Amino acid sequence: MIQSKQIAAALSYLLSPISMALYSLLIIGLFPPIPNEITPWYYFIIAFFFLCIFPMVAIVYNHRRGTVDIWVSNKDQRTPFYLIAIIGYILSILVFYIQQDLILFVFSLSYLCVTLALTITNLITKISSHSAGIAGPVTALGFMYGIYGAALYLFLVPVIWARLKMNAHTIFQLIFGIILSMIVTALVYLLFYPSIPSFF
User: With contact defined as beta carbons under 8 Å apart, do 194 and 102 qualify?
Assistant: First the structure.
């Protein structure tokens, strides 16, 4: 029982929204989705800061003070942290709009739109940011790489098991996070991304 909870906690870290943003940026950096569109390496450092580090600073700070747990499990405490993440995403969007980097601009825009949707939904129910944090970027990767990117939806299986095992969410909250994140991300990519793989 204890061992399974430890495995669930480890999976929650490995497949957290921050981790998935990092994995996605690494994939985009190593395998440019648009031919002849090579993004400078330091753009990914900027994206990593705004999409991964910026949203986590306040959570880690407040966790060290003992005011929140690292997952911000209390629904009523989540909104300020969502708003901080939103600021980071807006800054990322502005940077890549100015630099005219379409790939990272749209990717950052999808994070902004999904987080706005999560913030609003959180007023009603504690929607799962873990399931949304996988479904969103994987949907983005699906638009960029077709079936090869979409295959990463398989990560949803262990994260659903882990969050249920830790009693962090109901199955409804997990599925809701997946569906909402997929729909919002798909709309962003349909509107702004130039090349849609045949898989979609």
Answer: yes
